[in-house]
Amino acid sequence: MTAAERREIVIAGGGFAGSILARALHAEGRDVLLLERGRHPRFALGESSTPLANLALERLAVRYGFDDLWDLAAHGRWRRRLPCVGRGLKRGFCFYEHEPGEAFSPGPASGRRLVVAASPDDDAADNQWLRADVDHFLFERARSEGVDCREETAVEVIPVPRDPGDGPVRLRAGDRTVEAGLLIDATGGSPLAASLGARERSPRLRTNLVYSHFAGVAPFECAEGWPDSPFPERWSASHHLLEEGWMYQLRFDDGSLSAGFLLTEAPAGAAEAVFVSLLDRYPSLGRQFAEGRPLRPVASRSGVAYRRDLAAGPGWLLLPHSYAFADPMFSTGIAWSLLAVERVADLCRDGVPAHGLLERYGSLLAAEADHIDRLLVAAYRLMPAMERFAAPAMVYFAAASFDELRQRLVDAPRDGWCWQGFLGADDGRCRLFQELDERSAAQGGNGSLAEWVGPAIERWNLIGLLDPRRCNAYPVDLEDMERRAAQVAADLGLDAAELRRRWPRLRSPDQLPVRRPARR
Question: pTM for this one?
């Protein structure tokens, strides 16, 4: 019998999170094996980045000297230095309330449209990630830096009698048997987690997805003409709120478009027919896609949301999307995954972490999954009417922008930003999200939610959300923040003079700063 191959850390899943984590652990001197069941390039969803994701990329880039991660964190740097890796300009978020059978109209004071900028210009902007390109690129970077990377290698746990914490996890990896001191599930929801003992829990959201990539799709236009906007709205994560659920549109720089419908009821019929019937039901979307053609077959996926009961156990842990997923509504996925990559690299800096550290990781991930779920369940309850949906949107943007500014302007805590709960899951924002969830359930989104949300987010609203002068279109307005410097400083725990000295931190330098070498 061939002896088992012994490895300190095995990562199952060669997407962006698994590949970046493998590189980081290799840079820390760990023995890492990265396994991918498919072969790159392969299609994947989860394509829309955010400023919090970019901040995590920049921290990883600085710590490990990964120039490519620095470049991936801003559209201008990516376009100039990694032109062969597909991406799309993302200046922010747009939301549009549609009615069946009627052309879209922004309505009085743009009340049926919401626009929130995430960057002041194209160069500093976020990106839509063409995942086939990005995942392939990062997997090959890991290989080129010396990580043992294997494709077309499925992973299966070999059940063996063992006491908690006693011995390695035994795996069947392709035609080999491998013993892992730590197994990290980065597969994004495969059955591997169940074989480790992480049982399925019933998610509160039950949605279905119909999706593809398309060519020849026109920009979404309003027949009445657009009100003032802080950026060209085609370059956004576009959300079309419908009676049946909502539609996302993510445009890439090559002109192609990722689009899909998240539906609250299981669709009847073939995926392409369902897609076309929904376009026909909403005239503005139908006109937009009139000349469009799918670049790959339109597909469907039922049961989009899922959740496990554990995120870590003896000898194993799950990255976020192997543990839980609710919905792509606010593009939380890439940022949450990269935050976990930072945490796991920190946990494994000196080797396989003790069980108590794995429990800490699992507890925080569970709190964050609950936190995100509350936000998204409320959003589904309150759409498609913008006057109701604005409450969860404002809660999200206040929470996210607060962390963006804090991570830029405030010195990191001793254990790093990665151990702070995502979107405030471990601070006062936890209660904010809980109250949003409770009010959306109890009140069905009537007028009292609109009255509640402004005072509720005030502590974290550093960017002037709900200012009626904006007519639902919020730019990145640094001059406005400077005028309110005393209040912004107080909310961040700084004095106004110190805040002004730190304003340049809001702009990342073009080149990767001086590297801080990782320990070996």
Answer: 0.96
Q: Is there a cis peptide before residue 41, judged by omega within 30 degrees of 0? A: yes
Q: What is the dihedral of CA 137, 141, 142, 145, to 10 degrees?
A: 170
For residue 194, the tally of other CB atoms under 10 A from its CB is: 12
CB 170 within 8 A of CB 160: yes
Three-state SS sequence of 399-468? HHHHHHHHHHHCCCCCCCHHHCCHHHCCCCHHHHHHHHHHHHHHHCCCHHHHHHHHHHHHHHCCCCCCCH
350-385 confidence digits (pLDDT tens): 999 999 999 999 999 999 999 999 999 999 999 999
Q: Which residues contact 168 (CB under 8 A, 6 or more apart)?
A: 6, 179, 180, 181, 315
d(CA 520, CA 351): 11
Q: Which backbone phi and psi does 324 adopt, to 5 degrees?
A: -160, 150
The string of pLDDT tens digits covering residues 268-306 is 999 999 999 999 999 999 999 999 999 999 999 999 999
CB 118 within 8 A of CB 93: yes
Is the CB of residue 491 less than 8 Å from the CB of residue 462?
A: yes
Show the tokens assigned to 309. Answer: 């009961």
Pair 363, 419: CB distance under 8 Å:
no
Q: Are 337 and 399 in contact (CB under 8 A)?
A: no
Is there a contact between 7 and 180 (Cβ–Cβ < 8 Å)? yes
Lowest mean pLDDT among 66-75, 127-136, 418-427, 476-485: 476-485
Pairing of strands 113-117, 92-97: antiparallel
Share of the chain above pLDDT 90, in %: 88
Residue ranges with strand state E in 91-236: 92-97, 113-117, 126-129, 148-150, 155-157, 169-173, 176-185, 200-201, 208-215
Note every long-range contact of 438-444, with CB atoms under 8 Å and residues 24 or more positions apart, other chains counting: 439/378, 439/391, 440/377, 440/378, 440/381, 440/382, 440/391, 440/392, 441/378, 441/381, 444/381
In degrees and rounded to multiples of 5, residue 308 shows phi and psi of: -105, 160
Burial 332-355 (b: 16+ CB within 10 A, else e): bbbbbbbbbbbbbbbbbeeebbee
Mean pLDDT of 438-447: 74
Distance CA 135, CA 45 (A): 11
Distance of CA 3 to the CA centre of its chain: 40
CB of 58 closer than 8 Å to CB of 508:
yes
Question: DSSP character for 40?
Answer: S
